[in-house]
Structures are given as C-alpha cells and as structure tokens.
Translation initiation factor IF-3 (Micromonospora carbonacea), 197 residues
Amino acid sequence: MGIVPLERALQLAADVDLDLVEVAPMARPPVCKLMDFGKFKYESALKAREARRNQQQTVIKEMKLRPKIDPHDYETKKGHVVRFLKAGDKVKVTIMFRGREQSRPELGYRLLRRLESEITELGYVEAAPKQDGRNMIMVLAPHRAVKASAVAATASRGAGRERPAEESAAPAASGTPAAGETAAAGETGVTADTGGQ
C-alpha cells in the first residue's frame, strides 16, 4: 500500500472494519498491517497451545544406592532404572558414601560400571561417574529407539483418552450445547467485539 499518514491509515482500517496493528515499530517508517487483531490473538494462542502439547519434556528420575547394597536390593533398584529408561526418562544414579566408605570410592565406581553393563540395550551413560562430595553420580539416558517407542506408547494412550471426549460431545449436537462449546462461542463473541473497536 505504501507510506500513508496515520489518519489515512486509521480511516482505511475503519472503512473495512479491521484494526490497524503495528508489526515493526522500530522500522523507519513504522510498518503497520490491517487485520482483525482479536482473531489474530486467538489463532496465535491456539498455535502456542498446540506447540506445548507436542513438545517432549525431559524428566530426570533419581535412584540412590549404597556401596554395600544387598544383591536383592540391587536387583530391585536396577528394575526401577530399567522401568524409567523404558518410559523414556533419564536416570541419575547416586551412590551415597557414609563414614569410612568415603575412603573406598572404587566400590561405588564398580557398582555403577556393573549397572551400566547390565542396561546397555536400553540406555547409555550420558555423564560418566564422578565423585561429588559424599556422593558419586552417573546419569543414564535411554537410546533413541527406546525413547521413540515410549513417546509412541504415550501418544497412543493419549489418543485413547481423547476418544471418550468426542463421544461425550455427540449428545451436545442434538440439543443444548456442551460447556466447551459455550465457552468457544463466548470467546468468538469477545473476538468480534474487540475487532470492531
């Protein structure tokens, strides 16, 4: 459209019943656009909500062990680590040393190496074992294939939950609107009112 004075731009926006929105205020001259601002805000909120739904959050679980752990307790803790890795989560394994155990860090190191060798098909060591005060810490992460299957399983469970919501919306079409539909209509009405101003 080119460079036009502010009064003329406001008049053009009023003629077509749209809003004059400044999209690049730092440009010389400032760049404005004619649009329905309420509809734009609503659509951008929908896109942001969809992006949040699709993003994958990394969860770090922690498993604490002692250097003189009993074999049965070790197997139980290893089972938890395996379950966390299969779910696609990272695992922070902490060996806690007490008293004279601090003078024997090789016991904890050996225990962490044993755990690493027993879960190689599910995950890998993201952070090698290192001494941190009284504790020794190692971080395990799932392999990409394991994480992808965990994400797919979560998505299929999520799809199973959405189906009953669609079925509950079916009776609403025959008679009175459901609560979600009323809210959506209310939002549209607000958008229309904002656009006219």
About this structure: Residues 144-174 form the longest helix (31 residues).
